Structures are given as C-alpha cells and as structure tokens.
Amino acid sequence: MAKRKRAALLPTNIALLQNLVRRDPPSYKEEFLLQYQHYESIRDIYMNSPQTENSEEFGDLVGFVAQVASCYPKETANFPDELSKLILDHHQHLDEDLREKLIQSMVLLKNKGVITPEKLIATLFPILLITGSKQLRTQIYSNIVTIVKGANTGSKAQKLNKSVQALLFNVLSTGESSGLWATKLTRELWRRGIWDDSRTVEIMAQATLHGEAKIAISGVRFFLGADKEREEANAEDSDSDASAEIGALKHRLQINKNSRKRGRKAESAMNKLLKKRKGNGGVSATYLNFSALHLLRDPQGFADQLFTNLCKYRYDLEQKIQIMNLVSRMIGTHKLTVLGIYSHFLKYLTPKQKDVTQIMAAAAQASHDLVPPDAITPMIRKIADEFVSDGVSAEVCSAGINTIREILARNPLAIEAPLLQDLTAYKGSKAKAVVMAARSLVSLYREVAPEMLARKDRGKEASMAMSADAKAGTSSRLQYGIEKGQTGIEGLELLAKWKADQVQEEDDEKAWEVDSDSDDDSDDSESGWINIEDDKEYNISDSEDEEELDDEAKAAKAQAAADAAAEAQNIMATKILTPADFAKLEELKAQAGFDKLMGKKLTNEDEVDARGLIGPVKYKQLREERIAQAQEGREGREKFGSRKGKRDAPHSTTNREKARKKNFMMTIHKKDVQGKAKRSLIEKKRLLRAHIDKQKKKGF
Amino acid sequence: MVSARKKKEKKKDFQKTKLKVGKTAPKSNTHTDLSFKAKTISLPNQSIVKGITGAGGVPVGSTVSPLNNEDFKHHILLLKHHSAGTRKEALIYLTNAWNKYLASSDDLGVNIKPIVDAAAPLVLDLSEKVRAELLLLLRALCFEPGQVDPVPANQLSDISKPKFTLKPEFYTANSPLSLHIPNLALYIHSAMTHITPDIRADSTKFLLLMVTPATGESHTFSHSFDLSICSVLQRQYWAKTLNCFFALFGWSHEKTDQQLTMSSSSVTAGLAFGKQAASVKKSFLECLQLFLRSGLSEFGVKYKEIKLLDASGNDVVIEQRQPENPLFHPMSRLFTQPPNSDPFLHLNLFKSTNTSATTTSITEDVEARNQVLKTYLGSLHHGLELLAKEGGEIGRLAKKTIEVSVC
Questions:
Q1: Which of A183, A249, A382, B27 is the most exposed place for a label (fewest CB within 10 A)?
Q2: A74 — contact with chain B (CB < 8 Å)?
Q3: Is B350 helix (H, G, I), strand (E, B) or coil?
C-alpha cells in the first residue's frame, strides 16, 4: 500500500524521483521517460516561442534531467545539444530565471562529464559577447573562469587553454568592442595564476594595439599592474586559509568528546592540510613568476606599434599617460630604441600640464644608456628651462631637478657640463626640497662622471681618483656605447677573507688535537733518536725567534687582507661557488654595510615613482587632516583618563555601589555619618575603654 | 557684529585656490556636472505611432469591429491573469466576440494570431473550467466567417462533462485556425505528455478538434491547397502525435511483456482504476482511432465513410466525398508534379542544421505515414491488445483500432 502511494506521488515529486533514479536507474526508467517526454514537449514550446510564461516548471524539469542524464546516456544523447541550442538561439527572449537555470544545468552536465569543458565554453562564450543582460554576463563570466580554473588544477589543461585563447584571439581580431571581455577574462586568469604563458601575454598585446580605446587601455593596465595584482592574490591565498583551519580544528577537538572516528577525521584533515601546503610549495618551486613584460615575444615591434597608435588615435589625457607609461616601461626594461618618444614628451613637459609628474616619470623610465644622448638632451634642456628657475615654486623646481637626476642616472651623458653645474648650483637654495634634489644630482655625478662637476663639488674621493687617473694616463671618462660591464662578483674579497679565516681557525683546532700516531712513530724510528745530517743547516729557534714568527704571522694576515682582491680573483678562477657560498656572500655584504655604502643599485627595469619626483614638500595641513593624523596615533590604544566607574568584567553591584545608592534618610542617623564631633562624653569614654582593652589583648 | 564663522566663510569665497604640480585643479564652487548617461532617449511627444491611433486609442478612419477595440485587446491580456475565474470570463468574452463577428461580417481577413497565441497556453491550464471554455473558443475559431454553427448554443453547455465529445461533422477546409496549428499542436502535445492527470485526460478533446477530416466544398481530390486543420496536423505532426499517444497510454516503445508500471498508468488515467479511468481511456482510444483513420485514408479513396462510435454508442457516420472523376490511375500521383506547396520540406533544405532538437518529420502523404507507422506498429499492437483483453467497450474499441491501423 505504501509503495503504491509513493508511486502515485512520484510523477509530481521530482526531487524524490531524482533521488530514486540515482540509486537505481533501470527500475525507474519508465518514470524518467515520462518526465523526459514532458520535458520534450515543453522544450518544443520554448523553441517555438521562448517568451512563454511559467518557466519555473520547465526549469525544474531541465534541472532534473541534467541531474540524471548520466544515468540514461542513450535516452538523453541529444539533451546537451538541445540545451545549448535553446540558450544560444533564444537567450534574449528567455526568462531570466530560466536562463540561469539552463546555464546551471549545462555546467552540471560538464561536471558530470556528459559534455566537455570546450563545448560548454563554446556555447557560453558567444552569449557573453552579445547579451545585453548584466546578470547573464556575470553568471557566464564567473562560470567560464571557474571552468578554466577547474580544468587547470593539478596539471595545466593545454588543450582547453589553447581553444579558449583561440576564441579570445578571434574576438580581438574582429575589432568590435566586445573584445573587452577577452581582456577581462585574460586578466582575471592571469591574476589567479591560471594562465601564465606567453600566449596569454600575446592576447593582451593584441588587445593593447586594438583600435578601440577602451580595449587598448585595458591591455595597457594589464601590463602595468597585473603582476602586482597576481602577487597580492598569491600572498592572500597563502596566509589566509591554513592557520585559520588548523585553529578551528584544534578548537573542535578540545570541545567535543573524544571518539575514535573524530580522531581519525581530525587526522585526515590535518594530513590533507599538510599535503596542500606541500603541494603549494611544489607549485612555487616550478612556478616561474615571469612578469608579463618579459614574456612578450617581440617587444621592439610592440613598443613601436604602441607608440604609433599613441600618435595616431585619439585618446584622452589619462589614457595617453598610461600608454606613455607602458611604452617607457617597455623601453626601459628591454632597452629598446623608440626615438620618436623623446620628442613626443617635449610638448607635455610644462609645469602647468595636468598630471605632469606622471609624464616626467615616464620620460625618466624611457631613458637608458643605449639611447643616443642627443635624443635625450633636448628633453633635459626643456625640463631645465621650464621647471628649474627662481621664478617657480619650490616643488616645481625640485620636481624638475629630480626628474633630470632620474634621467641622468640612466643615461649620464645626456647633459653638458655647464648645464649640470647650473643645476647643481641650486644646492644653495632656500627650499629644502630643492637643496636635496640638487645634492642628489651632485652625489650621482661624483660617482659616474666627477669631471663634469664643478671642482668644489667633486669631493675628496672623486678628486683623488681623478688625479690618480691623470697620473696613470688612463681615463675613466664615460663614452656612449661603451658598457663598463661586470668584471667580477661584488664583495667576493669579503668571502675570500672569511674563507681564509675559517681555514686558519681549523688549523688552530687541529693543533690542539693529540696526534695518536706520533708516539708510535717516535718509538719505532730509531728509538727516539733524531737524524741530523751534517751538510744541512738547521734553524734552531729560541724565544726571540718565536716572537719574530708571531710578527710574521700577523704580517701575513695583514697581507692576506691586502691581497684579498687577488685572492678573489683566484677564487673566481679556481672554484665554483655553491648556493651556500652566495648566501654567505650576501650575509657578509650586509654585515659590511656594502649596500648602504653603494646606495641602492639602480637597474633599467626599475619603475619611477611619480609621487617621489616632487620631493618632500610639506603643505600646511587642513584641520580635518590634522585631526585625522592625531587620530591615527591613537588607534589601538585605550583612552587616557580615569577608569573609575567602568567595569572590566560584568559583575553584580558591589557593596560600595549599594551603599552609595542607599536612601539618605536611612543613613543620616548612623554614627559614622554623624561623626566624632557629636558623640556624647559617655560615648567617647566607652569607645576609649574598648580601644584600650583591645590593645591590651593584642599585647601592646 | 558679524560672527567670526561667517567672516571666515565669506573670506573663503575670495581666496585663491592653491595649485599643486601634477594635480588637477579643484573644481569651482559653482561647477555643475551636466553630463548624463542613457542608453536610449525616448521622446513620447514626438512618437510616430501617435498619428495613426487617435486620442482615445481608437484607430482613425476605421469602423470599430468587435475584434479590434481596446476592450477586446484587454481581454486577450486577461488570459494571462492569475485568477482562474478571470481567465474563464475572458475566454467567454472572446468566444462571444468571435461569434458576433462571424455573424455580422463577411471575411475581413482578421488576424487571429494574437488570440491563438494567448489562448494556446491555456491548454495546459490547471483549472478544468478554463479548459472547457477554451475548447469552446477554439471550436468557434474553427469556423469560417459566414458559416453558421450547426450546434445550438444551449447544447454546448454540457461541454465540461467528461462524457461530452464534440461532434465533428461540420468543419470546413479553410478554417482560419489551420494557419495556427503548429503553435497549438505544441501545447496539445505538451498536454498529452503532461504530468497532471486532468490535463492529460482533456488533451484528446483538443486533439479531436484537429483530427476531424475536412468536409468542405473546396475540398478536391488533388489536395491542391489543402489547408484544413486535419491535413496540416497529419502532414507535420504525424510521428510526434503518435509518440504522444504512446505517452498517453503509458506504452513503451520497446515491445516488452511487462505490464505497465504503476506510475505511468496512474498518470494516464488520474486513477489507475475506477469508472472515471475507463471513460478517459475510452476517449483516448476514440481519438486515436480517428487520428489513424484520418491519417491513413486518402480522402475519398479508401473509405466511403468513416464510422465512429459515439459516446452514447450510436454510430456517427461521416460522409466522405467520392472522387467525381475517377479517371486517374491510383499511382499516377507519384509521377506528376507534387500537389503540395512544399513537397521537399522533409529534406530540410532551408532550416538550421540542428533539427534534432525539434523532431518534426514531414509526412506528406499516406505512403509516408504508413512508413512511419510501420516502425511503431509492433508496440502499438502490443498495447492495443492489452487493452482489448480488458473487454467491454474499451476492448471493442481497441480491436477496431487495430483493424484501422493495419489497413
């Protein structure tokens, strides 16, 4: 009877049927077919007129069929095709909820392995490009990201990646504004570290050269900021989950009753966690974290084309600045030659130009030592003329000098000595920022080309080096196109010295060891006699000579230090340095304050910070800013002041509080309140007696 | 004395804002942002449509016909109302309006698409009364303008009772409804495969409207432009309707010896057993029989008359026209120009490639239908024989249906 009841209920109760079908597909085939026929007839209605109402029933049916499709592969062979056709053809007219349901069902089918991820993406991606519904777009977008992510866990799914990337290339090559989705998707996948190969970068390069400003800028942003984004995302991932999970696990173990099952569960969870960490470590070992800029296949061509686009298309200023920034980054990183850009900068370099600091930063990035100085000199002239004079404000002046310094640090030959000396003269300015900028320029040239500075600016070391050069007849004067090159490993003499010390220490230690063989030897060889041959001179040492020997050792030590450079050369010639050696080298360099002495080494890949160019200019703060700053210092500390009347932990009222609240009339007649003054004579006497008695009892 | 604060505020107005290098100048106090974003800008005052319809919504320069006024349109909208009562009322209104229109005017070429499109989903309506009214409306729509309904209105009142079946003797070949069969058929098929037993039970009533053979004067032997409802259905939905009958009876396509499963038979007849189930099953069988007959008979060639058992047990005789000039060889049709408007429809030359989604196989003539039926015949007979074993009225009907299907 119960069975019949359930059977009667089945056709309308899809959820129950789904459960039963999953457990035993063959027995419930009839019921499934009943539903499937129903689905088919409704599907035909929707194919014919997609705007039909009451889509809820259809959505439920589709969900049901999708759930059990893997149980009846023969009957539902066409089901995925039908779904994709329905949504591809009619996504504009279908009900929102139904659309969502259809996509969910398709994703479910993919998860169950009924359709391949490629097919699913081939269905969803075209819709993403053309649909006008925001909701649908976000759903499809997030789904595509999840699909690609899911396929790439463990090992990379090259086939899927290639097909999706081909789709994106196609979208970008059509020249429509829908290409924005390609950039968005690529950027997201790059950020998550799912795509990190040069094909991905090529997609973005193509987007950057796109005619549509929006797409181009999206590509530019990718190159400028995607790597930072990726690093941030990685950092977030690694530190967030692990510790929290372990903490929760331990907490649960403490609170719940211990049982074997629970113990096993905890153990397996712990193992999983450890494995995951290990897995992460494994990934990071092989994970080549190349930045997008380095993965470009043809940087010179790309930069040339981008610069042409910058001149050709209409962009607004903000976009122009971003493109300039990217081109200059490219030029700096790869040491490219795009000569046109330096004259292009010229027209923007005036103090009244909006966002001029960013343009100046770009100008600095664009220069490197392989650019002909003639190309950069006009730029420096212009900056010097426009920014550096007595008539402008201090911050403008300092921004100008700082920019010039940044440019010259990369290409020191791009300035003539007279102009340089004019600029260094600003070290006598009244404004602190300007003084600092000028001084930094001086210190830069002391290092690279002291002969261009005025005599008094050269400093002691540089002058000495110059005179030494003059004596020797050599010249360390800079010349364009001649690279100094790396001649050795920096700080290697430190390592050499350290090694020598180590060896000596070891020797000392050995000297303390008792040589067990020596006794036997002496016994064996001619019973303790020493052979002395007559034609040899023997150096018989006495105490004085020993002192001499010590002196000699000291001298040798001193000489070793002096000859460290030679030793370093020796090490380079004879030894292969191990990673441990390099680690030690770093440590020794840090100890010796090597980096500090040399200043932070500038490389051509460094970014120039536009905010840093202005220098430390201090504006008077507004009231709000002052308050905010004061508040910042108070963060995380308790307010000063009395703690009176403030409870730390919740508790009931104390006696003291009760007494305080007591009605005044009830206490007025108490002796404590009335005080000593009102006591009667007898009272006083009694109290005194009592006191004396008490004292006596105590033994006073 | 002016307060210090006010003084300060006043002073602020005349202060020069300090410019900073590399930053945008702050906007002035009086700056107003006038930009806005909009995907479309509509100017209803300048609409072109307004010129055609007058101020009251009444079209200028045309008489107000019962099918072309605001009230009528409103009632079409009411077909989607959530309350069953309102839907029913709307259907009654539409039926009356249509009847009035039939009586009043000759053919004005009214487009009944909006009515059919709105009414067709009601085949699946959960309320029985609504379905009954819908049946009346569709029946009314079957008539050509100028034709008079042979059944008086007072006799139609018992249409909602399950015993009632529509007598099919009066339909014409050029029914205005025949153009909308594809849409309607979808819903009828859906009703036939529906999960709710009541809707299933009523589905054949709608189908019965469709399968009644045409008996109009314009019907000729050569079928030149046979647009009767029946022929449209037989041509395009033969296989699909057959499929739906299988679902309706709960038969499986594979010939298996096992009995019907509990659930499918329970859906088939609301309750698997009992009086009501029997009557529903009978109506199904009648419909199947008529469907097969009308589909398998070349009109006027094979059958002189189609006999059908009425609900009351009397034989309903449908006269079929004899061919007036039987000069053709029966096979000559194969070698002449095809008479149909779209003879190669089944090749699917001009549609999208992915038609597997909508299983429409085109069966233009009796031979084609016979071909299709052959694939179903085994399981169909199996199912019918099971019914024949039940005996009684149903048994007799089943046996007769087997006869129809083999000839």
A1: B27
A2: no
A3: coil
Helix (H) or strand (E) holding B317: strand B315-319
Hey, which residues does B309 pair with through a beta bridge? Answer: B315
Q: Which residues contact A173 (CB under 8 A, 6 or more apart)?
A: A206
Q: What angle do CA B38, B43, B44 make, to 5 degrees?
A: 130
Residues 6+ apart with CB under 8 A from A640: none
Least confident segment among A7-16, A309-318, A342-351, A638-647 = A7-16
Report the half-sphere exposure of A559 (CA within 13 A, side-chain side): 6
Q: Comparing A526 with A269, which gets the higher pLDDT?
A: A269
Of A358-372, A550-564, A624-638, B243-257, minimum mean pLDDT range: A550-564
Query: Which positions ≥6 away from B174 have C-beta within 8 Å?
Result: B144, B216, B218, B227, B228
Tell me the pLDDT tens digit for each residue of B49-90: 544 443 344 444 444 566 667 788 888 888 888 899 999 999
Mutant choice from B263, B271, B356 vs A, greatest count of A C-beta within 10 A: B263
Which chain B residues are Cβ-neighbours of A399 within 8 angstroms?
21-22
For chain A, give every domain's residue range. Answer: 2-257, 298-472
Report the CATH number of the A2-257 domain: 1.25.10
Provide the mean pLDDT of chain B.
70
Helix residue ranges, H only, A563-654: 564-574, 579-591, 594-598, 623-634
Q: How confident is the model at residue B303 (pLDDT cuts 50, 70, 90)?
A: very low
Q: Is residue A283 over pLDDT 90?
A: no
Q: At what angle do helices A96-111 and A134-151 cross, to 10 degrees?
A: 10
The pLDDT confidence band at residue A176, using thresholds 50, 70 and 90, is confident
Q: What is the rounded distance in angstroms from the CA atom of residue A156 to the CA atom of residue A172? A: 24
* Contact present, A319 and A213 (Cβ < 8 Å): yes
Interface confidence, given as ipTM, is 0.71
Task: Note whether B236 and B362 are within 8 A (CB).
Answer: yes
Quick count: other Cβ atoms within 10 Å of Cβ A167? Answer: 19
Rg (CA), chain B: 31
Distance separating alpha carbons of residues A433 and A401, to the nearest angstrom: 10
Cβ contacts of A8 on chain B, cutoff 8 Å: 262-263, 266
Looking at per-residue confidence, does A350 or A647 come out higher? A350
Does the pLDDT value for residue B37 go beyond 80? yes
Q: Note the pLDDT tens digit of each residue in A467-515.
A: 888 888 777 777 887 776 667 777 787 888 888 888 887 776 666 655 5
Q: How far is CA A192 from CA A111, A149, A205, A275, A277, in A?
A: 21, 9, 19, 21, 17
pLDDT of A566 higher than 80:
no
> Residue A522: what pLDDT?
42
- Best of B21, B180, B183, B271 to disrupt the A interface (most A CBs within 10 Å) is B21
Averaged confidence pLDDT in chain A:
82
User: Which pLDDT does position A638 carry in this prediction?
Assistant: 77
Distance from CA of A71 to the nearest CA of B (A): 18
CA distances (Å), origin A467, targets A364, A447, A452, B79, B375: 33, 15, 14, 104, 109
Subunit contact B358:A354, Cβ cutoff 8 A: no
Q: Does B195 touch chain A (CB under 8 A)?
A: yes
On whether the CB atoms of residues A393 and A614 are closer than 8 A, the answer is: no
Is A40 at the interface with chain B, CB within 8 A? yes
Q: How buried is residue A624: exposed, middle or buried, by Cβ count under 10 Å (0-12/13-18/19+)?
A: exposed
B259 contact A CB<8A: no
Encoding tokens for residue B242? 């057959």
pLDDT value at residue A386 = 93
